Structures are given as structure tokens and as C-alpha cells.
Amino acid sequence: MSNHSGRGQVAGLPAWDRCAVMGVVNVTPDSFSDGGRWFDTTIAVKHGLDLVTEGADLVDVGGESTRPGATRVDEDEELRRVIPVVRGLASEGVVVSVDTMRSRVAQQALAAGAALVNDVSGGLADPDMIPVVAESGAPFVVMHWRGFLEGGNVRGVYEDVVAEVLDELHARVDAVLAGGISPDRIVVDPGLGFSKDSEHDLTLLAHLDRLHALGHPVLVAASRKRFLGRVLAGPEGAPPPARERDAATAAVSALAAHAGAWAVRVHEVRATADAVRVARAIEGARTGPDAPGAHASQASQPANASQPAQASQTSQASQISQNPPRRAEGAR
Question: How many whole angstroms separate alpha carbon 194 and alpha carbon 282?
């Protein structure tokens, strides 16, 4: 895949050789996409195993809906929903991520075998989250978040959405680092659909490359979200239901993989796994030994050309070191 800084390995997780696919298991009755389908523990574990069979590299288990207007679930109920599913999947060798904003849920999920904590609040919702994750040594997903979305509180006003998301994520990453979480265990997520309208989401996707200025792997979670429905509906049409947005999700996944995303989070795995595989194959063809001009450029080099070429590269490296590239606008 593209050699971006954001595609690096996350310490404590397998080193996937491409953009990883994170499958979703919502153990909730009210998820915007598939609420109630996997509410039973046995069914949820089976679904997670099916996602791995279809190509998921890791499975994200959540017991609380974060859709706009959703009411927060009681902590004990979230634990009851999540922990048995995490334990069941981890016992089968699945790499499990726990999707929670509560430190107690994260702590117990890690003890049950989870390998990653995916907190959509980036540690803002529970002040104990960062110390718990830091003590465990687990990787941590820091998402861009402006608060709970209850009562239509979207707070989605931006002058420059890319620059502002970068600045706010940067500040949050600094807080996470100060809390003791290792920099090689941090993943950033632009928070598509959270305090953002469709135009904001599309603009962020169009500038994913700028997120790499933060220096951490990037997770893209676009699956079945509202902005895809708006795109598919066109200016006059009604958005299709969430479950009819999987082809659009796969398209975004391929684009995100090409842009250097570390992972994509999706509900329907097979289409995205195929899309990521094709994106990787095309990228390989672009840079591989059979790429157009590869043989011609090698043949045009005279036998004694290695020394001048080396000198030229040294000169270029010297120029770059003296005039380093400017960092992305909005990054600090």
C-alpha cells in the first residue's frame, strides 16, 4: 500500500501488510445500522467469527449505540452485553477491539482478552479511561469528538473542517501522550458523522493524507453512515436504508486504503476486504517491476552510472535536509 506514515504498525497488534479490515459487532438493540441483530451473546460471537471468515483482521465489539439522539446505556448493562462476547471471540483467537467510552468496560474487556480500546470520545467521556489504558499497555483509538449527540447536539460548525479536526485531534493526542499511553500505540480517527454533516465527511475523506501529519496510524469508520446515503440519494432522492450502503462503503474503503489508512471499520466485511485487496494489487502494479517504464529506465542506465546516480541522490538528500517539506496546513 501507499507508504504513508499513517500506515505504520501499531504496537501490540499484528503487523498487517495492507490496510486492515475491522469488522463490527454491535451488541445493542438500537444501533443505527443493525440494532438487535446480534444482541444475543451466542449469535454475536458467531457473527464475529463469520466476519473473520469473510476477511476481517480484527473485530470491534460495542454495547452502546453512539448514533445521534441515542440514550446512554447503564454501565452494568454495557458490561453484561460486551464482556461475554469479547471473551468468546478472544478464546477463538480473534483480535478483538472493544468499542466503549467507559474505563471500567475497557478494563474488564482487556482482562477478557481484548487487544485494543476504541473510544469514540478519545478519553474525554471518562477521566479514568486514559490511566486504565496506559496501565494496561493496550493500543488506543483517539477519535475526533465534540461531545454527546443527545437531543440533536451535533455542534458541527466549522470554518475549515480539515484544519480544525487536525488541531483538535492533535490536542487530544497530546493529552493521551501526557497520560502515559505510548505514541506507538495511538491510532487516530477523524470521527466521520460525529458533529459533522455530509459535506464535512466528504471533505475529510478527500484530505485523508493530511491526517498523516499527526504521525499516527489512521482508522476510517465510514460504514453505512448518513453521508453515504445522501450521496447515493442525490439532491432530490430519499437516502437508502443503512444496509443498502455496503457497496458505497466498499468504495470508500478502497479509497481510504489507497490514501494510506491503517484500517477501515465496516459492518459488511466481504465487499470491503475484496476492495482493499484490489486496491493493494493496483498499487503493487503501479510500483512493481512490471510497471510501465521500469525496464526501460533500468536499460537506459550505463554500466558505470551507479556512482553519478548515487552522487545525485546524495545531492537531493542534502537539498531536502536543508529545505524540509512544509507540514500540512492545520497540523501543529
Answer: 32
- Coil, strand, or helix at residue 322? helix
Please pick, among 81, 172, 245, 265, the residue that the annotation labels catalytic.
Answer: 265
265 is catalytic: yes
Beta bridge partners of 265: 22
Tell me the H-state helices in 22-74: 41-53
Q: Which residues are bridge partners to 140 per DSSP?
A: 117, 186
Angle at 104 between CA 101 and CA 105, to 5 degrees: 60
Q: Of 225, 226, 270, 280, which one is the catalytic site residue? A: 225
Percent of the chain with pLDDT over 90: 63
Terminal C-alpha separation, the chain: 26
**Residue 317 above 60 pLDDT?**
no
Query: Scanning the structure block, which residue is given the C-alpha cell 480539515?
Result: 162
Q: Which residues of 243-274 are buried (b: 16+ CB within 10 A; e: fewer)?
A: eebbebbbbbbbbbbbbbbbbbbbbbbbbbbb
Identify the CA nearest to 142 among candidates 73, 180, 190, 107.
Answer: 190
- Give how far the C-alpha of residue 142 lies from the chain's centroid of Cα atoms, to the nearest Å: 10
Predicted confidence (pLDDT) at residue 166 exceeds the cutoff of 60: yes
Longest dimension (CA), the chain: 73
Grid coordinates representing 218?
Answer: 489512521
